[in-house]
Amino acid sequence: MEEKERVWLAAVFAKVYVFSGLPQTEKDFLIGSMQKRNYAKGDCIVNQGDEGTSFFIIYRGKVNVLVKKFPFRKVQVGTLVPEDFFGEMSLLRNE
User: Fold this and answer.
1) 28: exposed, middle or buried (C-beta count within 10 Å: 0-12, 13-18, 19+)?
2) Are the beta carbons of 84 and 56 closer than 8 angstroms?
3) CA 51 to CA 67: how far, in whole Å?
4) DSSP state of 50
5) HSE-up of residue 13 (Cα within 13 Å, Cβ side)
């Protein structure tokens, strides 16, 4: 991960409530253990009902959030953009 990405992540962490009480050393540890992943348009990042195993922060692009409503139909319920995040509960449960 490049230094500019680490700086960006530190700024995002400052805005995220679940990290507000952490000492800077722990925030630095979390940032240092993060990995950058790229997804192509149409890729599925996680499926509804999957056990949470990762915390994601959108760095570039957008992520459509789809919810399964019927056996063969999904409905878009939101869009995540840079600085939005999901999966933070996997960190809180230490998974």
Assistant:
1) middle
2) no
3) 15
4) P
5) 21
Please count the other Cβ atoms lying within 10 Å of the Cβ belonging to residue 90.
15
Q: Rounded to an integer, what is the distance from CA 34 to the centroid of its chain?
A: 10
How would you write the pLDDT of the chain (95 residues) with one tens digit per residue?
788 998 998 888 888 888 878 888 988 888 888 888 999 998 999 888 888 788 899 999 999 999 988 888 889 999 999 999 888 777 666 54
Cα 80 from chain centroid (whole Å): 10
The DSSP element (H or E) to which 66 belongs, if any, is strand 63-70
Q: How far apart are the first and last CA of the chain?
A: 23
